[in-house]
Specification:
Elements (H helix, E strand, L loop, with lengths): L1 H10 L34 H10 L4 E8 L2 E8 L4 E8 L2 E8 L2 H117 L1
Antiparallel strand pairs: 1-2, 2-3, 3-4
């Protein structure tokens, strides 16, 4: 796990180790970490020694703890009963402590783990804030989409209401015109019917008169 990852990213590459921030405390017996290519003594550093052992698979990984981009690992060299405790950032060695004391190795490892927790607080907070920001932006985008939809619906509704109002006005005008025409037609019909009744009455009178005259002549 750590050995494979660090072998590829921190050991095979001759990258410079990051300088330790002020929050990282050192133990009295801890060997100071040196950059892999930071100077003429880099080949003799504890970091380079552990790098070589990991490349040759001369150490076994006992435990590793990750916090954000930071990690602490405890490794063991069986043939010499030697412990190596490493502090790293993004799989680049930062500090390495070499000791033959199991007790000291445990103490250093726990100390490194605590350091990773403190160091990772900012990164973890940044990751959470970034996630909150992206989530909020998604909500904003969704709300903007919803707002635009509602605004568009309102525009369509207002336009439709205007169209309906115009149609209603036109329908009322047409109804009034038709009502006037209907009244005129009804009046005309009434007049025609009255004339017809008058003519029919006159015709009846004439028929009666003619019928009466014909009877008198026959006698």
């Amino acid at each position: 796990m750590l050995i494979a990852g660090l072998s590829v990213n921190a050991l095979a590459q001759t990258s410079t180790a990051s300088p330790a921030p002020t929050t990282a405390s050192t133990t009295p017996t801890a060997a100071a970490a040196k950059p892999a290519n930071g100077g003429s003594n880099s080949a003799n550093s504890t970091i380079s020694e552990l790098q070589q052992l990991m490349q040759s698979q001369g150490v076994s990984e006992l435990r590793t703890t990750y916090n954000g981009n930071y990690g602490a690992s405890q490794l063991f060299k069986p043939d010499s009963r030697t412990y190596y405790v490493a502090l790293f950032q993004q799989k680049n060695f930062w500090r390495v402590v070499k000791t033959m004391s199991e007790t000291q190795a445990e103490q250093v490892y726990k100390n490194f783990v605590r350091q990773t927790e403190k160091l990772a607080e900012v990164d973890i907070r940044r990751i959470k804030l970034e996630a909150d920001k992206q989530y909020t932006e998604q909500l904003i985008a969704a709300q903007e989409t919803r707002l635009n939809a509602l605004q568009n619906d309102l525009v369509v509704q207002q336009q439709q209401e205007q169209n309906v109002s115009v149609q209603q006005d036109q329908a009322r005008q047409q109804a009034q015109l038709l009502s006037s025409k209907q009244q005129a037609a009804s009046s005309e019909l009434q007049g025609l019917q009255n004339r017809i009744r008058t003519l029919e009455a006159q015709q009846t009178v004439l028929d009666s008169s003619n019928f009466g005259g014909a009877k008198t002549i026959k006698k």
